[in-house]
Each structure stands twice: as structure tokens, then as C-alpha cells.
Amino acid sequence: MSSNAIAIPGVQVEGKSWLETLHEWVTTVDHKRLGILYIVYGLGFLVVGGVEALIIRIQLIHSHNDFVSPQVFNRMFTMHGTTMIFFVVMPILFGFANYLVPLMIGARDMAFPRLNAFSFWLSAFGGFLLYFSFLGGSGLYGAGNAPDVGWWAYAPLGARAFSPGHSTDYWTLSLLVSGFGSIGTAINIIATVLCMRGPGMKLGRMPLLVWLYLVMGGMVLIAITPLSAAQIMLLVDRYLGGHFFDTQAGGSAVLWMHFFWIFGHPEVYVLVIPAFGFASEIIPVFSRKPIFGYPVMVAATVAIGFVSLSVWAHHMFTVGMNSYANSFFAITTMAVGIPTGIKIFNWIGTIWGGRIQFKVPMLFCIGFLFQFLIAGLTGIIQASVPVDWQLSLSYFVVAHFHYVIVGGILFATFAAFYYWYPKVTGRMLSESLGKWHFWLFVIGFHMTFDVMHIPGLLGMPRRIYTYEPGRGWDTLNLIVSIGAFIQAVAIVVFAWNLVISYFKGAKAGNDPWDAWTLEWSTSSPPPAYNFATVPVVASRRPLWDLKHPEDPDSQYE
Amino acid sequence: MQRVTKTLKAALHSFAFLLSCMTAAAAADPASTGTNVFAPQSTPARSILHLSTFVLTITGLIFVVVFTLLVYSISKFRARSADANSEPAQVYGSTQIELAWTIIPVLIVVVLFMATARVIHAMQDAPEPTNAVQVTVIGHQFWWEYRYPKLGVVTANELHIPVSDPAHPTPTFLQLLSADTDHSFWIPELAGKTDLVPNHPNRMWMDPEHTGVFVGQCAQYCGTQHAKMLLRVSVDTPEDFEQWIREQHQPAVPDERVAAGRRVFETTACINCHAVNGTVANGRFGPDLTHLMSRTTIAAGAALNTPENLSLWIKNPEAIKRGSLMPAMQLSQSDLDALVDYLETLH
Q1: Does residue A173 fall inside a structural domain?
Q2: How far apart are alpha carbons A3 and A471 in whole angstroms?
Q3: From the list B28, B78, B180, which residue is nearest A358 (CB)?
Q4: Option in B55, B188, B230 nearest A381 (CB)
Q5: Tens of pLDDT along chain A (557 residues)?
Q6: Partner residue facing A320 (CB), from B98, B181, B202
Q7: What is the CATH number of the domain that holds A516?
């Protein structure tokens, strides 16, 4: 379609020094390079957040363990949560958005390339600010270190009376700065999708992933703003004598919870919707069928986007809302299960009657389907408010949301890595290493997170640095910890695969999976300008039309 | 359908039983029960278990159906070498099927919601009978203060409540307050948890059916020693409960043999935080010590209440509970021994 390369002076210069290369990457406004920067940045922090998780798991390996002090443990779970949400999953998903959205809609770049670079560097500095707290958190008071208030920083723990020093300030500023970065990228994604589509690429012909990123962008705008507002209010409380959340002076702890969760719950969907998008691109290609019920999938996504804005207080069933508020948030939370269920059925509908190729991206998608099913059902269980009075704040909840984030989002993201790595680098990831990665991760994941539900049912609260013997939690925690280390080994295999395949992987060619969306029509890696001639689109699967002129999709539209 | 439900229920019950066995086998302290949400000993915990069984049955059925569909479609529709070079039939969707798998989940959600709303109302809006025992629970970093406003008793860390005879229920209603950060009161076998939030009083209730010691712990992260903010509820017979209240009413009895220890207590910083009824000590930042010896544990359950532990706790609280707000008292060995002797008389 558009595989002829155009020679652009200054792009294919040979023999650049490393300084020139570095300069190019730091000053780049190319959506593909920024996408790669986001992803590499996120992978770096994945290692950091993973090490923190391992420290947590070593400490909990048996009752009354003394591996780290309670202070260090509390810092570890705070940093683990903050890092994984804000500096691993968000950047990686934004990275894929940056890389793929323009390629998939036939554009040459994002709508605002410089805003794009600015947003990335804001997010990047946010992460560095958070980790600088290890050095600067003590501040003038000699108190503190990294923040230890939990990733929700519930008031009044974040107030100066309970968090002296600067650790909480670094946490606040870090989320504020990276939040502005997220808002910039969200604006960019929305503008790109609405304004930059190539000829023929109607909204109804966009790949589902692009649709889902559009919804995600809208949700980021709605969700991140209250978080930023709350962070500013917290700073006012801490330094300008405000009393928004300062309960010692009549402030409201519950207000902070509402601010935090009206960000926090949509955030879960901000993360999971792109994961749905990856599954919706990969499952059809490896089943050799188009996605089942495309319009319904779009409608379900928009429905999830809207309904998920009204479920936030299901994180607060134990804080003492009245029975009417509790009932309202119960039904909205259960209702969000309906469009989510429709999605799962549509993926099964896509597989049904197909010819499934069990390549590594598909394996991860199948893992995603099973695990997201369980994660959704345990979510429904906790939407039943009285049941949640037992399960909330326990290890059952920890198991549930790790099932969503690791079992769902991370599995889909791994699928995306295996699927699009050839496009980004021009080389295939090793299938055999990929299968090792998959099976090790599946075994480790289920050892950890299946078993983790049980201590919750046996009364083990989350965020405790140690526990009493004789509660029946010891053996379970040992199994959970062993599983965590198996997952760590799988991640090492994955990292090795990323590195070794870059140098030694098989050449990918333009279209290694025989896929149907526009990014596969250009070379791997794509040139800086993406398409030599901007492709014209006549259906949802432009490359299918090209490969099957006797039976094109465009015939049915 | 009926049979499937029954089988699933049976499976759930055996799972619950398995969990009970695990806790029972592991329980070191035979006097205290476990923390198993599947072993309720009080109406709130029991209603939650009934609702859980219902919700688990429905979600379990959904799981079985979708899981089977997934496994079937993945194994049935895998690519075979025979059809390597051809594509399967390209199907784009079906309105009827989409409608079916939208309407069925809607119905399931309606049923689940009705069952949930009923229990929410029954638990949260339960009227407080006039004979209910009232306790005000105040969460502190990192211990529990209990006040019985009608009975005039102040104590710490170990809650005493009467058993509730189902024929003549005497439930206990807790008013939940916090002196500093957020906490959460959770005794899994008696009731679900409710948070203690500053400036936001909450309420919960329980009517235990059996006597015994029920354990749990703070469930809402409240700071460094969140993990050792343990809960211990002693459910007494009505006679034992009245006896306990009578004893708690007594002021501390002066004992001349421990006058030296009492002098140490009353002339050091102890009295800034601790109270002993009938003496000059009336601090309220730490637990009331008037009847310290009536308690099984110290430091909110972090250690057993023995003279050795008490001595270590005063000398170096960090050794028992790192990050607790109790300071090391820097007493000489003789003062420390005298002080422990004095505390040992606070029955």
C-alpha cells in the first residue's frame, strides 16, 4: 500500500556519535520515539516496583518475620502502589497509544507533537521526584524518608501532624506533575483521533483499540483533574494553613476519600480499557475472524466509561455512608459488570468458529480472558455491600485488584509487547522464550493471587508488616511469596527476550501476523513519516480488503 | 438447575469447612477463636455469610458457564494443519445473540441488587433496643480505648461485652470515634468491619451467641504500627459481665508494699499519658491503667501481660512494638523493678 521509502535528508545519516543519538532522543517530538521512551521508562519502573513487591513478600513469608522494619515495609507498599499505577502501567499504556494511534488511523504524527514531548517529560520528572524522596524526604526536620502513607494517603495521615518532613510533599508533587503530563497526553490522543484520521477512516471504521484510547483519553481528563485538585488542597493544608483535610482543625477525612476515589476508580478503567483494546486487536487476528459485534463493543466501552464515573464510593463501604448511598453504589458497581460481560462474550464470539493460532500474543490474550473473568466476578462479590464489610481492606481485595491489574491488564500488555514488538524493532521476539515467559508467569501468577484470596477470608487485613502466628495465615503467605519469585523469574526471561531479540531476532517484515490494520502496511520499523503515501481506507480492515479483493469487507458496509 | 445450585452450595460449605479446619488446626491459643468470615458467631456476621453464599452461588454459576464456553471454544476452534491456507467464515456479529447476552446479565444484576439492598437495610438501619449495651470505641495510634457511657467504665484494648441470648437479645452497640487517624474495627466472626474516622462518628452492632474470646485487628492503615493494633473481645455470661463492670468501678487500692513504685509512677512522665483512678495520674493519651492486671495482654495485644514483658515494655517499647508512641522511660533498674511491682497490684 505504501511501502516505498522516501529518502529524507538528515534522517539516514550514518555513524552518529552516542551524544548525537542521545540528543536526538531527548529532543524528539516523533510520536514513535516518544512512545518507545514512555514504554522503556515504564519497564524501568516495573523492575523498581517489582523489587519493592519482592521485599514485601519476603517480609510476609512467615509470621513475626524481621526482614525489614515496619517503617521500611510501610514505605515499600506505598511506593509499590504509587509506582505501579502511575509510573509503570500509565506510561506503558500511553506509550502504546503514542506509537499506535497515528499509525492505525493513517496519520503522520500526533496532533500536538511538542505537547506530546512536554507531557512525556512531565511524567518522567514526576517519577524522579517520587524517588528523590529517598534522598530529600528527611528535609529540614530530619524526619521521614520515602512516603509511608499508603498510595491513597488517607487524611489525616498526610497532614503535617502525622507526616512531618517532606516525604508526603514529594508524593504530592510527583502525582501533581505527572498528572499534568497525563492530561496533556489525553488531550493529544483525543485531538489526534478526532482530527488526524486519514481519508476514508470514519469513526465507525477505526480499529477498536483507537476507539478505546479515545474513551480512555476522555476518562483521564475527568479522573485526573480531581486528583490534581486534591493534591493542591493538601499542599495548601500543609503549608498555607488550610483545613480541607486537617481533622485536628475541623477538616474532613471523608472529603479526601471522595476526592481520591473519584479519581481512583475511573483510573482502574483508564488502565483496563486499553487492555481491552489490545485483546480486541489481537484475538481477531489469531482467530482469523473479524471482531464479533464491533458496534456493540464500542457502545459497551462508552457505557463502561460513563457508568464507571459513578461507582467510586464502593471503595468506601466501610467508612459509614448511609444505607441509601451504599445501595446506590452497589447497583452502579454491579451495573458496570453488564457491559464488561458483553465484552467477554464478544471475545468468545470472535474465537467461535475461528482457526486459533496459539502464538505467544494469543496465549497471553487467552490468559487475560480467563483471569479477567475471575477478577470481574470477585468484583461483583464485593459490590454486594454487606459482603464487602467483611472483605474490604483485607487480602481478598488485594488479591482481587491484582487479578485485575496483573491477570488482566498486564497479561494483555504482554500480548501487546509480543504482537507489536516486530513493528517497532523490525525483529520478532523469540517464540520459545515467549512460551517460557508465559507459562512461568501463569504458574507464578496463580500461586500468588489465587492463594492470596484465602488469608483475606481468614481475617488478614492488608498493609500489615507482620502478623500473629496461629491465625492459619503462615503457609498461605509462604505459597504467595514463592509465586511472586516465580513471576520475577518470568519477568527476567521477558527482559532477556526483549534484549536478545533486538539483536538476534528473526527479521519481521512488514506484516508478520498477516494482520488487517494500517500499521502493518508500512515498513518495520516505520519511517519517521509513517506512510510514504497516506493510505485510503474503505472498511474496518483495510489490509483484508487488499489481500482479499474477491471478498472485501467494504462490500458489507 | 435446583440440583446445580445444591451441589454448588455443598461445595461452598465444604470450602468454608476446610477454612475452619485450617484456622482451628493452627490456633495456638485454645481460649480464643479464629478470624474466619465463614464461622459467624453473631447475627451481623451470619447475615453476611448467608448473603455471601447466595452471591457466591450466582457468580459461581456464571463462572462455570463462561469458563466452559471459553475452554470449549478454545479447544474446538484451534487451527489444524488441513486448513492452513484458508480463512474461516468471516462473521461480523448477530443482533439476537448480543441482545440475549445483554438481557440475561441485566436480570442477574437486578436479583443480586435486591438481595444486597435487603441486607444493607437490615444491618445498617437496625433500631437500637433500650436494653442494648452501649460502648464508645475510640481509635488511637496504636491502641483502642473503650468507654461504657451508661456504666461509667473506661478501659483499653480488651473489650468485654455480654453474650446475647437469642430469646432475649442484648446486643452491643458500638459508637466509633477516632482520636487521630483512620482505623477500622474488625472482628470477622462477630461482624463486618466499620471504620473509625475522625470527625465522622460511626455505629455498628453485634450480638454474640457464645461466650469466649474473639480476636481481630485494625483493618484500616493508621500508621507505623497498624499491624500490632490487635483486637480482643471477651464475650462474657451476663453474670461475669456484671462482675467485671463492678470490678472496673473500683478505684485503685493503695498498697504500702509498693509505695516506692507508685512514687516512681506519679513523679515521672507516666502520668502525662496514663490514668490510674484514685491517684494524681489522669493522662488520656495512653491506655487507662487502673485495672491493668485484669487484661491478658499489653501494647494492644502485642505481648502477653507478664511482669517480664511489662518491664521490657517500659524499658524499651521498641523491642516489642517498633514505632509505638510509648517512649522509653530511661529508669534505673531499681526504679523499673519497683514500678513493675506497683503495676502488678493494679487489679
Answers
A1: yes
A2: 65
A3: B78
A4: B55
A5: 444 555 555 555 567 889 999 999 999 999 999 999 999 999 999 999 999 999 999 999 999 999 999 999 999 999 999 999 999 999 999 999 999 999 999 999 999 999 999 999 999 999 999 999 888 766 655 555 889 999 999 999 999 999 988 889 999 999 999 999 999 999 999 999 999 999 999 999 999 999 999 999 999 999 999 999 999 999 999 999 999 999 999 999 999 999 999 999 999 999 999 999 999 999 999 999 999 999 999 999 999 999 999 999 999 999 999 999 999 999 999 999 999 999 999 999 999 999 999 999 999 999 999 999 999 999 999 999 999 999 999 999 999 999 999 999 999 999 999 999 999 999 999 999 999 999 999 999 999 999 999 999 999 999 999 999 999 999 999 999 999 999 999 999 999 999 999 999 999 999 999 999 999 999 999 999 999 999 999 999 999 999 999 888 888 77
A6: B202
A7: 1.20.210.10
Closest C-alpha to A389, from A462, A318, A463? A318
Q: How far apart are CA A327 and CA A321, in angstroms?
A: 10
Is the Cβ of A321 closer than 8 Å to some Cβ of chain B? no
- The answer for A 225-254 residues in CB contact with B (under 8 A) is 247-248, 250-254
Domain count, chain B: 2
Spatial distance between the Cα atoms of B160 and A477, rounded to a whole number of angstroms = 32
Euclidean distance between CA atoms A38 and A221, whole angstroms: 19
Q: Which residue has the cell 488469608?
A: A455
Cα nearest neighbour of B203 on chain A: A320
The reply to whether A63 touches chain B by the CB within 8 Å rule is: no
Domain span at residue A376 reads 18-556
For residue B152, being part of any structural domain is answered with no
Contacts across the A-B interface (CB distance below 8 Å): 293
- Asked if the structure places residue A2 within a domain, the reply is no
Q: Which residues contact A546 (CB under 8 A, 6 or more apart)?
A: A1, A521
B302 chain-A contacts, CB cut-off 8 A? none
Q: Is residue B305 part of a domain?
A: yes
User: Which of A116, A77, A206 minimizes the C-alpha distance to A517?
Assistant: A206
Tell me the chain B residues in contact with residue A162 when contact means C-beta distances shorter than 8 Å. Answer: 180-181, 223
In a domain, B238, yes or no: no
Chain A residues lying within 8 Å of B81, measured CB to CB: none
Cα separation, B203 vs B125, whole angstroms: 10
What pTM was computed for the model?
A: 0.93
Domains of chain A: total:
1
Nearest Cα to Cα of residue A170 among A293, A94, A78: A78
Q: Do B120 and A377 touch (CB under 8 A)?
A: no
Show which of B124, B143, B163 is a domain's final residue.
B124
Q: What are the distances in angstroms from CA A44 to CA A27, A85, A151, B187? A: 20, 14, 20, 41
Does residue B133 lie within any of the structural domains? Answer: no
Tell me what ipTM this predicted complex has: 0.92
Residue A7 lies in a domain: no
Give me the helix-helix angle, A113-136 and A31-59, nearest 10°.
30
* 346-385 in chain A: CB under 8 A from chain B: 346, 348-349, 351-358, 366, 369-370, 373-374, 377-378, 380-381, 383-385
* A454 vs B: CB within 8 A: yes
Please give the single-letter amino acid code of residue A49. G
| Contact list, A69 vs chain B (CB under 8 Å) | 322-323
- Contact A549/B at CB under 8 A: no
Of A295, A351, A553, the CB nearest to B73: A351
The answer to whether residue A6 is domain-embedded is no
CB contacts of A322 in chain B (<8 Å) are: 124
Strands (E), chain B: 133-140, 143-148, 153-156, 158-162, 172-178, 183-185, 194-196, 202-206, 212-217, 230-236, 297-298, 303-304
For B11, the domain range is: 2-75+96-124
DSSP-based three-state secondary structure for A394: strand
